[in-house]
């Protein structure tokens, strides 16, 4: 296992002039100088490079192999989109450039918005939010502004969230100043309509709904749900995290959603993870357009302009115009696939997930066993002595990344599997074989699973100890963190 | 394990009467088992007024973060400070040293709305199917 950088003790390169702190310090006012010596790694440049190269080889990503986290984290990004985002004319522009100098960039924003409107059916769009959760809060603020404008006398201070929701939904609602009320799922995995009706009072501003939900199931009663919500004067918020399943198949606006955020990294092939940057575009119905963040790109004749005049706008939610180069990747993805390709993404993602579910259901219980969308949830057999965590760790030994585990919360010992449209049948067959073998091990040799992973650079992590004794920085004298 | 002398909530808290109008609240053995290893417990400040069903804190485990709900209304008179350093007490001794808060009841009649040990046992046996 690679040691931490602080444990390298090679001498700094002899022929490089040594630093002279005194020469630097004399330029800094005394009150800004620290009193204590700072512990910094001391080694030569070449060892630094070797250290980080060694670490990078320990990485596992979707570029290494199958990654059943799917779009839940980030789906595979075709490399051509990276090339396009790196074009000098795009990567090198300054956000203060005058409109006439960046017509191409404005056109990209304008057209990407129109593509997103086309696939979702929404009338309004903003690319400003910098991530999915940021898109969520933007969307909820739009809903708040809408209610305040249209029904200022009616106090709507509650947001309904199903028990299968992503954790960001209640967090967003709370951050926006709402109380959160949970709505139950029925035994089919859909929203319990009776419970929804009971919770739908005049105090409700919106229902936040993910469709397909986190069980990978299409809400069968979505039209009834949107009817009930609207009849109550509330709005329907769409969490677009699972939009990949619908791409080319269903337009959320036609299902009755009033606002939805898109995680561009989940559906439109932009990188994510490690702190971003991300992009959480937000689409809205016509009624919410007046509240969208400014500026919006508008087109007059052949020219594009920034439009800041919008009296009811919630204002800016991000400096400048959002993470532009992330939007460029999504734009390139649209153009590379074209209308024909985009329309097939959802179908292929759904087909792949159903193939995996059908095959794996022979070895693992699938609690909500009906045609799934882009993902499905399975569990270990109750009679097995191994847990979902043990299975996930053993999957590492077979050379795959484990799936999402213990989510959604309503399924005991959940494993959520999402292949996305990019995986081939051959890859999925290898995964199925591995999980078949693993199911046999769970019965015959459960100890093996409980000790897993055995082949990875780091064995089973004591997650509880890591959570209870948080050590976030190197401390001299403490044993290496991995022992 | 469901001790007979306690009362229970549907959200898996237990309630124990410890004197005049004072009760102790914790989470059940079933709840700690479901949550898995608990790594952090956030508890309210003493003297906070709680309404029945109101969230009084958060239990964070390696699997999930869950709200803790007060089965009754009242004022927090003390909290289990030991959980700050040893959250694992909730896993190891959920009914004793893993207790969470002590409350002075505002409406003692609310106690009658709670589940008996038998009713709670029935609830969890249905839930785990």
What can you see in these coordinates?
The complex is a heterodimer of chains A (483) and B (129). Chain A has helices at residues 21-25, 45-57, 79-85, 88-91, 103-120, 132-150, 168-175, 193-199, 222-231, 252-255, 264-267, 324-360, 388-397, 425-444, 446-451, 463-468; strands at 124-126, 158-162, 179-183, 204-210, 235-239, 259-261, 282-284, 296-300, 303-307, 376-378, 404-405, 415-417. By secondary structure, chain A is an alpha/beta fold. Chain A has three domains: 5-57, no CATH class; 79-337, Type I PLP-dependent aspartate aminotransferase-like (Major domain) (Aspartate Aminotransferase, domain 2, 3-Layer(aba) Sandwich), CATH 3.40.640.10; 343-468, Aspartate Aminotransferase, domain 1, CATH 3.90.1150.10. Chain A has a seven-stranded mixed beta sheet with strand order 1-7-6-5-4-2-3, sandwiched between helices. A three-stranded antiparallel beta sheet of chain A has the order 10-12-11, with helices on one face. The radius of gyration of chain A is 25 Å and the shape is globular. Chain A starts with 20 loop residues before the first helix and ends in a 15-residue tail after the last helix. The mean pLDDT of chain A is 93. Chain B has one domain: Beta Barrel (OB fold (Dihydrolipoamide Acetyltransferase, E2P)). Chain B has a six-stranded antiparallel beta sheet. A three-stranded antiparallel beta sheet of chain B has the order 4-6-7, with no helix packed on it. The longest helix of chain B is centred in the C-terminal third of the chain and has 11 residues, at 117-127. Chain B starts with 6 loop residues before the first strand and ends with a helix. The model of chain B has no long low-confidence stretch (mean pLDDT 94). At the A-B interface, helix 16 of A face strand 4 of B.
Topology:
The complex is a heterodimer of chains A (483) and B (129).
Chain A: H1 21-25, H2 45-57, H3 79-85, H4 88-91, H5 103-120, E1 124-126, H6 132-150, E2 158-162, H7 168-175, E3 179-183, H8 193-199, E4 204-210, H9 222-231, E5 235-239, H10 252-255, E6 259-261, H11 264-267, E7 282-284, E8 296-300, E9 303-307, H12 324-360, E10 376-378, H13 388-397, E11 404-405, E12 415-417, H14 425-444, H15 446-451, H16 463-468
Parallel strand pairs in A: 2-3, 2-4, 4-5, 5-6
Antiparallel strand pairs in A: 1-7, 6-7, 8-9, 10-12, 11-12
Helix pairs in contact in A: 3-12, 5-12, 6-7, 12-14
Chain B: E1 7-8, E2 13-19, E3 22-27, H1 29-35, E4 38-42, E5 49-50, E6 55-61, E7 65-69, E8 74-79, H2 82-85, H3 89-92, E9 101-105, H4 117-127
Antiparallel strand pairs in B: 1-2, 2-3, 3-9, 4-6, 5-8, 6-7, 8-9
